Amino acid sequence: MTGFFKRAMWPILMLSCVGLNGCYAQAGNTDGKTPQNQAAAEITLSEAGLRQIPLTVTSGGISHSFTVELAKTTAEQARGLMFRTELAPDRGMIFPFTEVRMASFWMKNTVIPLDIIFVRSDGTIESIAANTTPYSLDPVPSGEPVSAVLELSGGRAAELGITPGDKVEWQQ
């Protein structure tokens, strides 16, 4: 009896959902997208399934634009850029923290060298660990409590003249 009820009600539920979406589109939304669809259309995901966002580093009056993966959860932050065999010059990963804290990273299972950039709560760069050694288990610590860490391809910060005190801004 329960299986029959589910089979009988399924088409009715589907038609109800379709009808609601149609009603929304007729209520002044000319592109036919619901707000959820519009938000989803604006979010792009990396191959690793992480949200990609724009990030800018301003150094000496020059802005450098990147598209970075947002590692927000503990699991995403633990994996970071491990196992990646390449990272384009305009790409990276940002690790925002919920609270300002001392940060320490390592390169376990990280195939490529990275610049690890520690970012204060005001968005300024506290320090840069340049060209970190792939696969190293040595800790790479911040010099003071930070609110985020940015990882770029190894040597990219020096190539662009990015130094401590420069400003990092991203969509939060």
List keywords for this structure.
single chain, about 170 residues, alpha+beta, 8-stranded mixed sheet, two-stranded antiparallel sheet, 4 helices, 10 strands, about 35% strand, globular, disordered N terminus
Topology (elements, then pairings):
Layout: H1 2-26, H2 35-42, E1 44-45, E2 51-59, E3 62-70, H3 74-79, E4 91-101, E5 104-105, E6 114-119, E7 125-129, E8 140-141, E9 146-153, H4 156-160, E10 167-170
Parallel strand pairs: 3-4
Antiparallel strand pairs: 1-2, 2-3, 2-10, 4-9, 5-8, 6-7, 6-9
Task: Write up this protein.
This protein is an alpha+beta fold and 172 residues long. The protein is built from four helices and ten strands; from the N terminus they run ααβββαββββββαβ. The strands form two sheets. Strands 1, 2, 3, 4, 6, 7, 9 and 10 form an eight-stranded mixed sheet that branches. Strands 5-8 form a two-stranded antiparallel sheet. β1 and β2 form a beta hairpin. The termini are far apart. The N terminus is likely disordered.
Average residue pLDDT: 82
The number of helical elements comes to 4
| Percentage of residues in strands | 25-35%
**Biggest sheet character:** 8 strands, mixed
Task: Characterize this entry briefly.
The protein has 172 residues and is α+β, with helices and mostly antiparallel strands. The protein is built from four helices and ten strands.
